[in-house]
Amino acid sequence: xxxxxxxxxxxxxxxxxxxxxxxxxxxxxxxxRAENTQLMLSYQKGQITLPQHKVLLCSLYEIxxxxxxxxxxxxxxxxxxxxxxxxxxxxxEPLEADLEHFFxxxxxxxxxxxxxxxxxxxxxxKIGREKPELLVAHTYTRYLGDLSGGQVLGKITQKSLGLxxxxxxxxxxxxxxTSPNRFKQLYRSRMNSIQLTAEEKAAVLEEAVAAFQLNIxxxxxxxxxxxxxxxxxNQSQSGLRTSTLPASP
Length: 249
Ligand code: HEM
Prior knowledge:
Structural class: mainly alpha
Number of helices: 12
Bound molecules: protoporphyrin IX containing FE
CATH architecture: Up-down Bundle
Radius of gyration: 20 Å
Helix content: 55-70%
CATH topology: Heme Oxygenase, Chain A
Number of strands: 0
Strand content: under 5%
Order of helices and strands: HHHHHHHHHHHH
Number of domains: 1
CATH superfamily: Heme oxygenase-like
């Protein structure tokens, strides 16, 4: 965790008028909140379990499916075209490969997501339909995150789950991106080239904060989902025990 924290650039400088700087400043507090959710802490501590990782993959699948379908549909929109990088960034296929690895060939029947994931998806569909200029807030939140902290998390996850090869870890790897840092710089300059009115820019910043919150709610819902299934498992275990053990005197 310490090395990741110290890898962060000094962002104490006031944000300029560039969208990339403003969006980073606007979401700074929410980034701290997202990093400190139980689920993200488990990753950082190298304590992620297979059930945790599997439910996250399911939700990411639904989220990226909605995000990338909306991006594809709006790829020639002037506020989308500059930040449209399907070759380099698309996560849907890698997620499908990982789901197949962990769930088997009938993975599609096994994808389970909580209500918060459906809300996130619905938000993406709505802005894809009604306000495509806000999609950049969502691509920023997910893709730049995956190219930042996500890179370290991939290595930790491999260790935590005891995976021998890169199998099941496609989500974390970007074969189309040689240098994540240089790509992030290109991405920021493309974000900054989007022509937005003051109103639209304010709406993008607001949407980015909402995007972080949608992610946080997904993480929290997943953790709740897991604690309920763990509880049921414990109950049936203890139920088994009381029925097989002789009653205590
Ligand atoms: C950037 C760590 C979770 C979104 C970063 C950076 C680090 C980091 C080290 C680079 C910061 C810099 O270059 O200044 C982590 C860790 C996480 C985590 C350890 C949890 C395990 C998340 C989540 C999201 C997210 C859950 C959103 C869903 C972003 C974004 C950036 C970023 C958008 C780019 C910031 C910018 O340069 O504008 N993260 N992160 N991160 N992270 Fe995270």
